[in-house]
Design brief:
210 residues; mainly alpha; 3-stranded antiparallel sheet; 9 helices; 3 strands; 52% helix; globular; binds manganese (II) ion
Length: 210
C-alpha cells in the first residue's frame, strides 16, 4: 500500500453552503479512496506478477509523467485513471478552504491579469471553458510552454500527462456537485471561487515558476 488517502485540513461541512457536507463525505471518503485503492492494487499487481518492486519507489508525479515510458502496459490504463484520480483530488482538497482567501497573491497576482486581462476575466474564461467540458473531467489553470494556460482534461487525466504543471484544478464530474446543483454545472463553477485557497494556489505556482 504505497499511496494513502490524504486527510483534509477542514471538516466535511466547512465548505457549506458552496459544497455540501454529504457531497464532501462521499467524494473524499468513497470516490477518492477508491482511486487510491485501485492505484495501489495496480502497482502491487506488478510486484506479484513479476517480482519487480521498482514502481513502489516512484512518486505519483513520476508515474504520471512517465506513464508511456516507465509504467508497464498492463497497468497503464489503471495508473492513468486511478493515479490521475489520486493526484487530481489531492490537489483539489488542498486548493479549497472554508470561506476562501480572496484573490491571488504574490507572483500569481501579477501573472493572471497579465495573461487573461483581469482576475474577473480569468474566472470567466476558466468557467466558460470548463462548463463546456463534455462529460466527466476537470478544469485547470496550468503552467505550459506558453506560461499560464486554462485547459480541461477528460475523465481523470492529469495535466502532467500532457506536459502541463497543474496550478489549480476544479473537478466537474457530476459526483462533485450533483447533490446540490443537480445539472447546473455553471452554478457550481460560479460559486466555487468562494472557497478557493489562493494562498495555497500561489504557493504551488511559485514552486513551479521558480
Ligand atoms: Mn471527483
Amino acid at each position: 500500500m504505497v499511496f494513502k488517502l490524504p486527510q483534509l485540513n477542514y471538516s466535511y461541512d466547512e465548505l457549506e453552503p458552496i459544497i455540501d457536507a454529504q457531497t464532501m463525505e462521499i467524494h473524499h471518503g468513497k470516490h477518492h479512496q477508491g482511486y487510491v485503492d485501485k492505484l495501489n492494487a495496480a502497482i502491487d499487481s506488478v510486484e506479484s506478477d513479476t517480482g519487480d518492486s521498482s514502481l513502489q519507489q516512484m512518486s505519483l508525479e513520476q508515474l504520471l509523467t512517465g506513464l508511456e515510458t516507465d509504467v508497464p502496459e498492463s497497468i497503464r490504463t489503471a495508473v492513468r485513471n486511478n493515479g490521475g484520480g489520486h493526484a487530481n483530488h489531492t490537489m483539489f482538497w488542498e486548493i479549497l478552504t472554508p470561506g476562501g482567501s480572496n484573490e491571488p497573491i504574490g507572483k500569481l497576482a501579477a501573472d493572471i491579469p497579465a495573461k487573461f486581462g483581469s482576475f474577473a476575466d480569468f474566472k470567466q474564461k476558466f468557467n466558460d471553458l470548463t462548463v463546456g467540458q463534455f462529460g466527466s473531467g476537470w478544469g485547470w489553470l496550468v503552467v505550459g510552454k506558453q506560461g499560464l494556460e486554462i485547459i480541461t482534461t477528460a475523465n481523470q487525466d492529469s495535466p502532467l500527462l500532457f506536459g502541463h504543471k497543474p496550478v489549480l484544478g476544479v473537478d466537474v464530474w457530476e459526483h462533485a456537485y450533483y447533490l446540490k446543483y443537480k445539472n447546473e454545472r455553471g452554478s457550481y463553477l460560479a460559486n466555487i471561487w468562494e472557497v478557493i485557497n489562493w494562498d495555497k494556489v500561489a504557493e504551488i505556482y511559485e514552486s513551479i515558476a521558480s
